[in-house]
Amino acid sequence: MNNLKTLLSYLLTYIPSNITSVSSRTLRTVSHRLRIPVLLSLIALLFLLGCQSYRIRSPVSKPASHYHFYLNPNKDLSCIGRVALVELDNDSSYPQISADITEALFQALQKRQVFGLTTVRQSDSAWRSLQLNLNDTYTLEQLLAIRKALKCNAVLIGTITEFKPYPHMVVGLRLKLVDLMDGQLIWALEQIWDTADKTTGKRIKKYFQVQLTDSQAPLSEQLATISSLSFIKFVTYEVAVTI
């Protein structure tokens, strides 16, 4: 950066001062010969400075290592278009939790604004007409049928592998985002969140530090009384940041 500024200063000050020390005819000749190179140099310098400033303003943050997920390096998430989030399958003994986690995941992904998103309930006639299992591997014909029925370019499907509200809260998820054009896996995640885990507990405290500032009770006491829905919001937030 310092070298660029030095060169720019030279072009703007040193060259003109030397030109003025010669005759008028020589001045016109030199000025004409230097005009285009100087302009091109200035344009190149401004471009380089602009690129450097852009890189400083737009740092790239990477998800933490405790997230267990896959992200296809050959797929551009911003170019996917419309994604259908199908209500998650539920392997737990709590039927209502499927709707709760699906809705929380929808809201968390919407805040990310990576792609267009719509929710499809498993009871919707469009999904039921496909007669597909969420855990199956689909053929190209089935992918085309999903695309037409749900009017989307990719589908986000998965299963709640575990849910326990007590003695300590546990949520397990297995999710995948599939491109309906070619059947390729765009993104996938499989993880368990357990409030008894110390590492998870630290992340929960960090997440809720801002959310629970209205209460006068110590943070440790507030965390002990966090509802299942609040914990689900934390879980789906962590899912969303990996996309």
Detailed description of the structure:
Helix content is 48%, strand content 19%. The chain folds into two domains: 2-57; 69-240, Rossmann fold (3-Layer(aba) Sandwich). The chain has eight helices and seven strands. The longest helix has 34 residues, at 24-57. Helix 1 (2-19) packs antiparallel against helix 2. Strands 1, 2, 3, 4, 5, 6 and 7 form a seven-stranded mixed beta sheet that branches. It has helices spanning 2-19, 24-57, 97-112, 125-128, 140-150, 198-211, 219-224, 228-240; strands at residues 69-71, 82-86, 89-90, 116-120, 154-164, 170-179, 185-194. Strand 6 (170-179) and strand 7 form a beta hairpin. With 243 residues, it is an alpha/beta fold.
Write the layout of secondary structure elements.
Layout: H1 2-19, H2 24-57, E1 69-71, E2 82-86, E3 89-90, H3 97-112, E4 116-120, H4 125-128, H5 140-150, E5 154-164, E6 170-179, E7 185-194, H6 198-211, H7 219-224, H8 228-240
Parallel strand pairs: 2-4, 2-5, 3-5
Antiparallel strand pairs: 1-7, 5-6, 6-7
Rg for CA atoms? 28 Å
Tally of separate domains? 2
State the CATH topology of the largest domain.
Rossmann fold
Output the CATH homologous superfamily of the largest domain: ABC-type transport auxiliary lipoprotein component
CATH class of the largest domain: Alpha Beta
Total helices: the number is 8
The pLDDT mean sits at 78
Low-confidence stretches: 1-5, 10-24, 42-62
Ends: how far apart? 34 Å
The helix/strand order is HHEEEHEHHEEEHHH
Secondary-structure class: alpha/beta
Helix content estimate: 40-55%
Shape: globular
Assigned CATH architecture of the largest domain: 3-Layer(aba) Sandwich
Q: Largest sheet, described in full?
A: 7 strands, mixed
Based on DSSP secondary structure assignment, what is the total number of beta strands? 7
Q: Give the strand content.
A: 15-25%
